[in-house]
Amino acid sequence: MLRINNIYKTFNIGTINEKTALNGTCLTLNEGDFVTVIGGNGAGKSTLLNAVAGTWFVDEGSILIDDVDVTKMPEHKRARFLGRVFQDPMMGTAATMGIDENLALAARRGQRRGLHAGISRAERERYKEQLTELDLGLENRLTSKVGLLSGGQRQALTLLMATLKKPKLLLLDEHTAALDPKTAAKVLALSDKIVAEHNLTTLMVTHNMRDAIAHGNRLIMMNEGRVVLDIGGEEKKKLTVEDLLEKFEAVSGEEFSNDQALLSK
Amino acid sequence: MNISSLFNAMPGAVAQGLIWGIMAIGVYITYKIQDVADLTVDGTMSLGGAICVLMLTNGQNIWVSVILATLAGMIAGLVTGILHTGMGIPVILSGILTQLGLYSINLKILGGKSNQAVSADNYDLIISLRYVKGVPFYRNSIFIVALFVIAIIAILYWFFGTERGCSIRATGCNPNMSRAQGINTNFNTVLGLMISNGLVGLASALYSQYQGFADVNSGRGAIVIGLAAVIIGTVVFEKIFHNFALKLLAVALGAVIYYVVLQIVIWLGLDTNYLKLLSALVVAIFLAVPYWKQKYLAKPAKKGADTNA
Known about the structure:
The complex is a heterodimer.
Chain A: E1 2-11, E2 19-29, E3 34-39, H1 45-53, E4 60-65, E5 68-69, H2 75-78, E6 82-85, H3 99-107, H4 121-134, H5 151-164, E7 169-173, H6 181-198, E8 202-205, H7 209-214, E9 218-223, E10 226-232, H8 233-237, H9 241-252, H10 259-263
Parallel strand pairs in A: 3-8, 3-9, 6-7, 7-8
Antiparallel strand pairs in A: 1-2, 1-4, 4-5, 9-10
Helix pairs in contact in A: 3-5, 5-6
Chain B: H1 3-33, H2 41-57, H3 62-86, H4 91-109, E1 115-117, H5 141-159, H6 163-173, H7 175-180, H8 185-211, E2 213-215, H9 222-237, H10 244-267, H11 275-297
């Protein structure tokens, strides 16, 4: 499904801020895998997702989605394979456009955008039904500007947009990190539901170890730009936060340095 | 000061305002929809007229001349777009570069002279400052330019509702999200610049006919007048005009208000040498007001995300 072969990425080459974010990362995802990604700050989790999404090109290595080599494919072309939800709720939607218009933009991902109407009446009806399923009351605010919505509502909407056109791969980049705990839990539950419904192959970055254990069928840990731990199946089901912390110390030789992850134990 | 002289000057001010309204709609597309400040327009506002006059003096049909002026404007937008998206030059600087280059091109088009006349006596012009009073309404320049404005608004209203138009709006609002949704943001940025400058080229062609000459300097400070019209139109009509077509109309009316006020100021006896200074000041103040409002009058924002998700 997704094959990441030995990719490298260094930022700010030749400056004092030089940082190797991906250092020979390898990862293979099978059809239907729901993989959670954890790791300390600067471990390369988000960088990995951005590499797959094509925010920039990797320095070395290759990325294949469904056997299509996308290593040199620009971000907007790759988008037809991908559904993405970002950490920042502002980032996934167009604030000055209506809820319906945002959905219509997402529904046309991967299609040529011509001079047909940007949104049709039939589409609006369909979106209304799909929004009803989110159970956030958005179905009655179809033409409201997205900028008026709360962070949680925007993330839920972005999630719907990411999956409106079934993606080959869903990329969730700490998409609940900016939300309060209650809202985060809701959005996570919704993510689970949508992933299960469409049987989506998913890569979810999180800071929260408990979430990483509770969701998905596979867990990977990153450190210094590499995948250092890959746990799936029965072993993952039995995993505890203590196990993970211990494993982290063993592979990295240092204590897990993320307050958020520790506090959320 | 004779009030009747002011009234006599009004039809001319309205006609000029409407012509600049077309130009201001072009500025609205870049400034408000695309969220970029495109300074190409200073060059394009001279280019369209120069092309139009060149075509006319070479015996070309008036409509063909106007269409070619529009296309020339679009090419100017294309150049700025390529400088920006293809060569990585910030959009403001790209616009300045194109604008500067256009000065030479405009001079060349005008045969090395800074201006060139097209008299309404010798050419069958669409509009002229002679036709603002005392002619049947269908020959009246105000009426004809108003038709242009309505047609342009109708076309833009349709276009920005299409898939492509929506994707241009999304690109201006959130380029990250747009790329994530498979939108080629570079292409859209260039396309938007072309549409905007095409409109400015058209306005310039009409303006040269109205004045009866094309001038290499007629675009100087055009961006400021365009912005003034956008801002005035938005401020005056924002409470009543919510629909996109009406917002565009507000911009055109903003340009009319600008020219009417200008006419009044001149009538009050202001030295016309100060006009550009006055325009710059008006735009600076109007741009500062929202900033000041936010900085000094805003209520403290609620901290943390809303929980009612």
